[in-house]
Specification:
There is one protein chain. The chain is mostly helical and 150 residues long. The chain has 2 domains: 30 residues, no CATH class; 77 residues, Periplasmic binding protein-like II (D-Maltodextrin-Binding Protein, domain 2, 3-Layer(aba) Sandwich), CATH 3.40.190.10. 40% of the residues lie in helices and 8% in strands. It has 5 helices and 3 strands; from the N terminus they run H-E-H-E-H-E-H-H.
């Protein structure tokens, strides 16, 4: 192939052609952008995934929203959530936390706890037994309830 018309020589021409071909291939092979989810749900237990996937599918269908579930190692989830809450960074909408790490997120005055107190909502939805016990909690203690069972 005669490359005399290209002022920089044969090697730069081939580099340019390969770069243009690679760029065109990359552009043609790209997937359409996925729309962002309405809710982000972070979990730490792989064995809970199947149960949550079933519940999420039903939730998406009845509510008309899109939920993305992220499986994250419990130590990573806890440390990143702690850092995000301390710095004001974005956090998932719903988080499954290991019971041992809950103390970090709920210490201090209740007004300063960065979690949503679900006690009133649980009562309104009938998720509390008639005797006032909270069946959704691992430990039955008085005070705010930051957890929900399916």
């Amino acid at each position: 192939m005669n490359c005399d018309w290209f002022p920089y020589g044969r090697a730069p021409l081939w580099i340019l052609l390969v770069a243009v071909a690679a760029g065109a291939g990359h552009w043609l092979a790209r997937r359409p952008a996925e729309s962002p989810p309405d809710l982000v749900f972070a979990i730490f237990a792989p064995n809970h995934r199947a149960m949550y996937e079933t519940a999420i599918a039903a939730f998406e269908k009845t509510r008309g929203v899109k939920v993305r579930m992220n499986l994250v190692h419990n130590r990573v989830l806890t440390s990143r959530l702690q850092a995000a809450l301390q710095t004001g960074a974005d956090v998932p909408d719903v988080v499954e936390l290991p019971g041992a790490s809950l103390g970090f997120f709920t210490r201090g005055p209740i007004e300063e706890v960065a979690l949503v107190d679900l006690t009133d909502r649980l009562h309104a939805e009938g998720r509390v037994s008639p005797d006032g016990r909270k069946p959704v909690r691992e430990v039955d203690e008085p005070g705010p309830d930051f957890r929900v069972a399916a």
